[in-house]
Design goal:
The chain is an alpha+beta fold and 673 residues long. The protein is built from 21 helices and 20 strands. Strands 5, 11, 12, 13, 14, 15, 16, 17 and 19 form a 9-stranded antiparallel sheet that branches. Helix 2 packs across helix 7 and helix 12 packs across helix 21. The N and C termini lie far apart (50 Å).
């Protein structure tokens, strides 16, 4: 197979690796970093490898071309520091982010095979990190690390590319939170359903802890998808089950006493004001149904025993000295998740690898729940799944009343080949906020793709005192949260490769921070970017302004203070320059630091896993894409059941609300007769 990087690009990767680790002992060679990235990008579909190749050429040009390659690592380090680390030029800041790719090639090192073959992985040894199968779980209350694959979907529920049907009753586009719930509802009403999924099927038996490979295979663009201007990374699943396979299982309602800040925006009122009066009672009933099916419950405190309590304890100390009423009334809670039921073969074993899928079969994601239900053999017409197939256009017929009738769907098969599948009764669109917007726009629904919202995350990592072993890697990635009403803070940690890309800093600073991996704690602030985005030429264009930046500065300053109040000695916010804050700084000095450090979005590393909007609900067909029943305006049989129907930002994690909205629209409604 042809390597993704040519000789010059490979030389640039090697030169960058040698400079980034200058004067530090590398656990693997720079040549091995190159080999790792050659393999990693072989696994990524789409155009993202092309972008990285161009970025490498850009780096080479900016850093001095042949002179940079011929220079010593010490000289290269100086050039990188001067031209990239300290720059405020947008183009240079953008290509500076390529540093994360080099770090992934180093910290994502993996010996071919499974866990046992990596017990002596030199990177893990250097970080004092243990894979789940190595961890001592003999103490009372601990849960043994054991694989359970009995809930995996079986091969018989899939349609091969050589047996694609010419027609079916209902085509469901997307197998994630909205598509799976809709498909189950359609199947329950006796319709034959074909679920089309662009990604591949990765049951728990195929999942491993090889971060680089899993990220490349399970995420859109290998986890490197960004907004058009590259200011914000947008994480979305591209796998059977969608983002439910690679998320943290968090289940929050838009409004719920004791779990959502009482003074937070009332999303139901906002939606009604915008022209989407959704019944709170109706959606609450759907929330109830989803939570019951997924056995949603509060996680056990043993699963988040270190990093989780650090956030709550620090916040309580912060709120006790604060004079702001919102701090006093903020919600502090352990997350509710779809990890049930709490039995030995399904309870979470807190491996810390949620974002690359659960190889232990414990998460009750869509494949283990609604897709399994929809494809069950007990029914006369079980749904079937066509994976590695991307819907590109909905074809319409003209109805007697002038409304469009969804008649067929064009698809492209991975590996080549195109098909047109006729829908005898209708089509459900649930490919995710961005993909559904693109699909509907390409199908002639020209209002699609506007008013897209994000919940934007920004991590704040901290170092605990010498001699402290937090070992936050030996627990659930996300355990606790604070809801202040205007922003949230969520405890958050990652395995080595992802953590290396999350931890800010350059050269020896970054190296030493990662060497202190077991002393790190981390949390992320989450703030809304409400209806600021739209799709343009297939990409999300979204630019946050001073309003959002001011909120971000305040949220980061707050989390920094929380870390210090609970004993941290240094704090590393996700700033492109990699600055350090120290525990001797006053609160006023911390506030002033962020005012100076964050002037524009390029100054900070931002990401989102929660895009929503683009096909918003509205009673008025001139102001929205779908009606109150989530049917596309001026069509008879085309419904949208993913997060794209949300008219505005819901502020909290969107997984549960997406499922509930799909249930509200489809379950028991007999939309297709």
């Amino acid at each position: 197979m042809k390597k993704p990087f040519n000789r010059l690009q490979a030389l640039m990767i090697k030169a960058m690796a040698e400079a980034l680790f200058y004067n530090r002992k590398m656990a693997i060679s720079a040549d091995q970093v190159v080999d790792n990235l050659q393999e990693h990008f072989t696994n990524i579909d789409g155009k993202k490898p092309d972008e990285i190749r161009l970025a490498l050429y850009g780096l080479l040009a900016v850093l001095g071309g042949p002179f940079f390659l011929a220079a010593t690592p010490r000289i290269r380090k100086k050039l990188i520091s001067r031209r990239l680390q300290k720059s405020r030029i947008d183009f240079l800041q953008d290509i500076a982010r390529t540093k994360g790719v080099i770090l992934a090639g180093y910290y994502g090192h993996w010996h071919h095979g499974d866990e046992e073959e990596n017990f002596d992985n030199p990177i893990f040894a250097d970080l004092n990190f243990e894979l789940p199968a190595q961890r001592d779980r003999s103490a009372p209350g601990e849960r043994p690390v054991r694989r359970e694959t009995h809930r995996d979907l079986t091969a018989k529920v899939f349609v091969g590319h050589g047996a694609v049907p010419e027609e079916t009753d209902v085509i469901v586009i997307g197998s994630g939170a909205g598509g799976a719930v809709a498909a189950a509802a359609v199947a329950d009403e006796g319709h034959e359903a074909l679920i089309i999924e662009a990604g591949s099927h990765y049951p728990s038996s195929r999942l491993t802890h090889e971060e680089a490979r899993m990220t490349a295979r399970l995420f859109k663009d290998g986890g490197l998808q960004t907004t058009a201007d590259r200011d914000i990374i947008v994480f979305q699943g591209r796998v059977v089950g969608g983002s439910t396979v690679i998320n943290n299982g968090i289940c929050l309602r838009m409004k719920q006493a004791g779990l959502v800040h009482p003074e937070a925006e009332d999303v139901y009122e906002t939606w009604a004001r915008l022209g989407a009066p959704i019944s709170e009672t109706s959606l609450a009933a759907s929330y109830d149904a989803i939570e019951q099916t997924l056995n949603v419950s509060q996680i056990d405190t043993i699963t988040g025993r270190n990093n989780g309590p650090h956030l709550i304890d620090g916040w309580n100390k912060y709120a006790a000295q604060s004079s702001d009423p919102r701090d006093k009334t903020a919600i502090t809670a352990w997350f509710r998740k779809n990890y049930g039921p709490p039995t030995p073969d399904s309870e979470c074993i807190y491996c810390g690898y949620c974002n690359t899928g659960c190889p232990y079969g414990r998460k009750k994601a869509m494949p283990e729940s609604y897709l399994s239900h929809a494809t069950g053999d007990a029914r006369s017409k079980p749904a079937r799944i066509l994976d590695r197939a991307e819907a590109t256009e909905i074809l319409w017929a003209e109805g007697a009343n002038g409304k469009r009738i969804a008649d067929a769907v064009k698809i492209n098969l991975k590996g080549g080949g195109k098909r047109v599948i006729r829908a005898r009764k209708g089509v459900v669109v649930a490919a995710g906020a961005l993909a559904s917007s693109n699909l509907l726009y390409n199908s002639g629904i020209l209002q699609s793709g506007s008013n897209i919202s994000l919940n934007i995350a920004c991590p704040v990592v901290a170092l605990m005192p010498e001699g402290t072993k937090v070992n936050a890697w030996d627990e659930d990635q996300m355990a606790t949260y604070i809801d202040r009403g205007d922003f949230l803070i969520e405890s958050h940690f990652q395995p080595p490769m992802s953590m290396a890309m999350l931890v800010p800093g350059w050269f020896e600073d970054h190296y030493e921070r990662m060497r202190n991996y077991s002393r790190l704690v981390s949390a992320g602030v989450l703030f809304p970017a409400d209806r600021l985005g739209h799709m343009k030429d297939g990409k999300l264009k979204l630019k946050i302004g001073e309003k959002e930046l001011a909120l971000l500065r305040r949220a980061l300053a707050t989390m920094t203070k929380v870390h210090f109040l609970n004993g941290a000695v240094e704090v590393y916010p996700a700033l492109l320059r990699g600055q350090t804050l120290t525990s001797d700084m006053s609160h006023a000095a911390i506030d002033a630091f962020y005012e100076k450090a964050i002037v524009e979005p390029d100054d900070v590393v931002l990401s989102s896993s929660h895009p929503h909007g683009g096909n918003g609900i509205n009673e008025d067909p001139h102001k929205g894409v779908v009606d109150l029943n989530q049917r596309v305006h001026n069509t008879t049989n085309c419904y949208v059941t993913d997060a794209s129907v949300m008219p505005s930002c819901i502020r909290v994690n969107a997984q549960l609300t997406t499922m509930a909205m799909a249930h509200r629209a489809m379950a028991g409604k007999r939309r297709f007769g």
